Amino acid sequence: MSQNSTSIDPATGAEIRSHEWDGIRELDNPLPRWWFWIFLICVVWSIGYWIAMPSWPLATTYLKGTLGWSQRANVAADIAALQESRRPIEQELMAANLDDIENDPDLFSFALASGRSAFKDNCAPCHGAGAQGAIGYPNLNDDDWLWGGTLADIEQTIQHGIRNASMDSRFSEMPAYLTLGTLDRAQVSDVTEYVLSLSGRAEDAQAAERGSSTFAEQCVTCHGEDGKGMRDQGAPNLTDSIWLYGGDRDSIFETIAKARNSSMPIWGERLPAPTVRALAVYVHSLGGGEKSTMNMEGAQ
Amino acid sequence: MDSRSATVAGPGDPGRADILASHGIEASDVEAVNAASRRSFYKKREKIYPKRVAGRFRLAKWVVMAVTLIVYYGTPWLRWDRGMGAPDQAVLIDFPGRRFYFFFIELWPQEVYYITGLLILAALSLFLITALAGRVWCGYTCPQTVWTDLFLVIERAIEGDRNSRIKLDRAQLSVSKFGKKIFKHSVFLLVALLTGGAWIFYFADAPSLAKQLVEFTAPMEAYIFMGVFAAFTYGLGAIAREQWCIYGCPWPRIQAALTDEDAMAITYRFDRGEPRGAHKKGESWDGRGDCVDCRQCVAACPMGVDIREGLQLECIQCALCIDACDAVMTKVGRPSGLIAYDTDVNIARRQRGEKTSFRLIRPRTIIYAVLLAVVGAVMLTALIKREDLDLSVLRDRNPTYTLLSSGEVRNGYTVKLLNKARLGRSFILTIDGLDGAELTGVGLRDDADGGLRVPVDGDELRSVRIFITLPRMAVTSESLPVRFVIHPDAEDDAVAVDSVFLGPKP
């Protein structure tokens, strides 16, 4: 019976509910009636909302609502409007002389911002979010460039890529000396020793001496007599402290034995030209960007 | 849906009447009006008709109401000259420009901690005043109270005081009644609209926005927000009134936890008032209390409660019952103060024949006061020391450092300069603490006197990329301290920020 399970709170006259937690009991006060009406109004409102706005999911589609509101369409419209608003400065970017971009603060900051976001979207998977690179993927912060570090060089590299199907792509191919049988294992080992000697790290002077003649026969065409590389060939400088595939003895041996010919996509096919240019400006700004020779002459 | 179903034996229990008839007792088919089976899940709102009172506290409330309303409606119209290119509105929250202007203070979004400090000060002030004198905020200054009071003034002016209003509500619908109601709600809506309108003036230049509003050329958002705020003002002040305080507001519950037995509260001094009862003029007051049970305290109460029941959740402590009771006590020739700011502790003391006293200085009030002073002092110091130039340095984390082909080590930094001055300035950025370091910046020129020249427009933030290059020999540790210093032109005070230069293990 209800009289056994409930009692009345003397202070408020409200019924005390039968349940209890740690000595705390609940008073059963009535809800204000207007609160209930607001609840009903919300129910009615929600029915109107179902009709007006997208609501119920169906098997393959959904109820679209009479107002035709769509978040997806709104975002698409916003993006289109954003792209439209960027068009003038993008045209300006394409019309500008590459070396003058830096001197136009508005254009420069637009290119940097646009390039940074495009980099994170497209380039970061290989080159890293901070363009720090990885084994086989160059660090773009340093001053060591395989194919040139001027704005024009970088734009060309991004536009057409490296070792791909494009006729305009950067291209060169290092032979796999051991795999192809051009050199035997001992010769490759000697050349490795010689290459180490270029950065002062050789341990066996005789082997390096032997390797030196093989290097002169096989490698100087691309890497140069002094081993400082050749940008037309994308041949790295072997005398500095930066190694794309690792600078230890084993890595260098493997490079010579099996060759390394990695590639980069034709970004010009995937990205609009202003984005490619903005990317070039951004990568150039990371610290290693080189001044074009024309500009240097002007400076002198 | 309304009533809970009960299984108790109802009055219609068959045969009951017949059985009782054997005794000659009559059985009635009646049920208690407050029977559990009849108790509703929902409570009907009982309309409150607060009666006008006069007295000290009413006067204090009029003054508080006038001041708060004048401050609220008037502030956006105050002007403050900040020179060319800056708004001349004294208090302005400029969302598009991302600035908050308050007289001589101009805050940037990254200085929102001032607002946090202000909120902390407000919270501590509330704690302190609540510990001292209970729900002073609710009773005097809460917008809900002030606007409800304002709407009651209008209601009284149109429909008369308590009795006329009750009479009007009970009367049959007539042209006169209909007219009064329509008129009243029109004035309510007008006040609500002005209130909502005043709020949006804090977010835009008030005179020009007012002109646009009248000419219907203001942006749609202005009308929408004005309408939203007007709807809330009307709904809360004209319709919901005490319902909001009882059911909607969390503050009464929090305040209950902030008071203690020493906090002053509006108290019915039952030790003096009881036993209560009607008193005829000329009769003796011996053997009875001073309360004549006129219920003027209940009639005056905007919350419709009886203060003689003691402190209760619904009581906002507006003190109007004190004024109502004092007027009655004066008339019947008894001392005033039967209802007054007092504590239950004092009542107990009086009953024991001890002297009463208020313990205003107690651990909790001391703690609140000290905290208030400390936070206030910290904020004031921060505000006084606030510079019109700010510098922040973010070292690149990815990569932490770059090895150059020459073997040199380079670190990249993003340096942000906030020029809070009106005019554009050209700063010189230098570094301290690294010997033989080369400082370069993207798109920046070297200054003739050393360092990099960084021009920043007035009232702007400029973010620049800075590189520091060190010879390998100079990298004597994996982490070297470096200090970035920014020198404003023609000013001595430089701003410095410490950072580090990272490199490979030496």
Summarize the structure.
The complex is a heterodimer of chains A (300) and B (506). Chain A is mainly alpha-helical. Chain A has helices at residues 2-5, 33-52, 71-95, 105-127, 151-160, 185-198, 205-218, 220-223, 249-258, 267-270, 273-285, 293-299; strands at residues 7-8, 15-21, 24-28, 31-32.
Structure description:
The complex is a heterodimer of chains A (300) and B (506). Chain A has 300 residues and is mostly helical. Chain A has helices spanning 2-5, 33-52, 71-95, 105-127, 151-160, 185-198, 205-218, 220-223, 249-258, 267-270, 273-285, 293-299; strands at 7-8, 15-21, 24-28, 31-32. Chain A has a 3-stranded antiparallel beta sheet. Chain B has 506 residues and is an alpha+beta fold. Among the domains of chain B are: 1-44, no CATH class; 61-111 and 143-249, no CATH class; 389-502, Sandwich (Immunoglobulin-like). Chain B is built from 16 helices and 16 strands. In chain B, strands 7, 8, 9, 11 and 14 form a 5-stranded antiparallel beta sheet that branches. In chain B, a hairpin with a 4-residue loop joins β2 (91-94) and β3. The termini of chain B are far apart. The interface between A and B is medium-sized, with 35 and 29 residues.
